[in-house]
Specification:
With about 270 residues, the chain is α+β, with helices and mostly antiparallel strands. The protein contains three helices and 15 strands. About 20% of the residues lie in helices and about 35% in strands. Strands 1, 9, 10, 11, 12, 13, 14 and 15 form an eight-stranded antiparallel sheet that branches.
Length: about 270
Amino acid sequence: PVERTVPTFATEGLEQVSGETLGSGSILRLMLGESIQEMTLSLYVTGFTLTPCLPRGRTIARAWSPFSLVEKCQVKAMQDSAQWAVFKLTVFRREGMDLSYYFACTGSDAHKERDMWVGLIADAIGHVTVSLFPDVPITVAPLAGKARTSTRIMAGYLLQGGSADKVALLYGELHAYSGGISRMVLYKDHWCEQEVRSIAIADSSSISTRKGSYCTVFGVDQHRFCARTREEKELWLRAVSNVKVKLMFEAPEPTPGEIAVFRAAVGE
């Protein structure tokens, strides 16, 4: 077979962002335990900038990362708390050095403004994420002539977080359990000819995700993945969780008929 490379994408900070402006306006940036700073937040197709309203201070520019969480936050009881609406943008990084940006809208329309910002940011990250995926849908059918895919439950493209703010596009394949363990195999592409790695899934494996206004990230033990959309993330989570439950209850080896049932459940 022809040697294929794994596409990788950088999500680190930028000197400047480009593309269409999606929105811009004044906002408060909350730096926990430090200060509250009035800044101009500008959203672009490729990323965002934060510019201090005061002359001192530097502009922050960052590309949108698919490995992000956008969530609304509760404000602790305080004077005029009803006129504060806080939200948070978290950028997940493999090294554990996650980046968190807290923002606050104030005034009588604070909650309405927050909803606007959250919606714009979620849409921008969603569009960037989808743009990194090829037009190949999730499938449950094994590949003809490739025995290694015969126990496939589902397969589809995923982004996997890497070092130095880089993400890799891989083709993931979840297998039915056998011998008390399941596997999630990662290939270079959907032809499934070149395996990159195999991740064991056991009854003790940790399956994780984060809830919020927008997040397509989920984890299997220490491995962090990003699905194309929120809907596809739920498909992966449900399929992997169902396999884990089977392992927890020491279910017998699945028959071909039972594997067909597992595949049908993916599309329900």
